Amino acid sequence: MKFATLASASLGALCASSVVAAIDPLTIKGSKWFNSKTGEQFYFKGIAYQPRTGLSGNPDPLADMVGCKRDVAVFKDLGINSIRVYDVDYTKSHDECMKLLEDAGIYLLLDMPSPQYSINRAEPHWDHDTMSHWQAKVDAFAKYPNLVAWIAGNEVANDVETTPSAAFVKAAIRDMKAYLKTKKLTTPVGYADNDDPKIRMNLINFFNCGDEGSRADFYGINTYRWCGDETNFKTSGYEDITKNMTSYTIPSLLTEYGCNLVRPRTFSEVKSLYGTDMGNIFSGGILYEYTEEDNEYGVVKVSFGDSKVEKNSDYDNFKKALAAVKPQGVKMDSYKASGKDSVCPAASSVWHVKSDVLPPTPSQARCQCMIDSLGCTFKSDKLSTDEGKLVGEVVGNICGATSCDEISVDTAKGMYGDFSACSSLQRSAWAVNKNYENQNGAVCEAGDVETKTVSSPKQDDIKECLNKKDDNGTAGKPSDSSSGSSQDDDKNSSSGSNSKDEDSSDENDSDENDSDDSGSDEDIDEDSDTSSGASAVAAQLSAAVAAALLLAF
Q1: pLDDT, mean over the chain
Q2: What are phi and psi of 321, to 5 degrees?
């Protein structure tokens, strides 16, 4: 039975503070959230909060006190108890805004990724740089008692071709849960999917299978099926969504909802979400979204630096819909958690992941040790965009001609090279050195990019690097990265951006038999070359240095 109090502050922080929190802590027990003081079941009545009008760059609504004071008053009038924020600047102070939210009884669900540091669905990777930024965000927000949950990915895998990215998101969940544990924090970490009919059941099962250390603590669904009053619980597909989660053993909620194809929105789905249709399965939801932006999902119009708020008809309708629902739920003491963990989906033509093996935990020490072992490497540890493109071509050619297994990935086979979690530049250096060794030290080159030979590398044996500690302080071989129950326990797009800023032509897709979504196709041939070996690295590193890898350069 899973029964964890969601403490958002470390023990040290709690002991150092004599201030009594103005908001009750929440607890997860089985598949439900509870108020740990009252024992009442908790339902999220939330809204997505990421104002963007009137400023450039990535906005941080929790550091904008003009906006925060303006909007918290509106939140109270609207009747919400939670907000979901996608992106913040963890280097700024959020004390004042978080205190206003706390005093208003409003909890925060915060996405771990940001546009610059996220798992890219097209070229997924999980490394020290990304992980360290997520850790810094955790450190900045750990002290706030109303931080109730972290979201480690938002619609990262959104079709069959991008399912490999799910493995990296789950690895991130594993590693961030481990990091939270080192800080004596129990804030849950979850995932939000895009409700794609071809992959939804595989995702639902994948994030709730395997050992507890790598499973999501809760599961979110972003769905835009219910459009207008002509739609109902059955015809919208909400009935199918609910059936999918009936025996789920962790909490589920709608992390985004609110189709805008028919406006003004009347939010008739709210009655089902908090009533007898769904209230026994789901823990409420987060409406998308608070502010009216170019995508036209907002309930108010605001502008950065301006205290004025202009409410539209959606605002009044949503307020009325929320006020009309009073979900009763169950008492924590009388609730008996039931069900069993999901079965990990097998690799198939619609699921390109061997679900019981995950990518390794990033290790700065391991990767630096590898670099220190090379006899041929780049002269500079910084490459320009043009140099990155050149290196991508060079590495693609090298790995097309020789094995680059140590830096390559094949999610369908569960194969992750010992140094596959190193940075793009480090993996490229490994490949250039491999070419150097294949030529018996005759030529150290990377096209027109300057290289150097190292006559006496600091590290004699690269195999010793595998024993270096990972970024959570655990020593061991990086390939010992399990997820399934059969194993030992232990920027654009991808995860941190607002989902509906992108076109979504599948908003109303529904499936009368979602239980078949995981697919019954034959398993992928273990001998196939699907994104593996030389072709995998050639594709990954060549494209990566020219595209995803360039982000690091």
Answers
A1: 87
A2: -65, -40
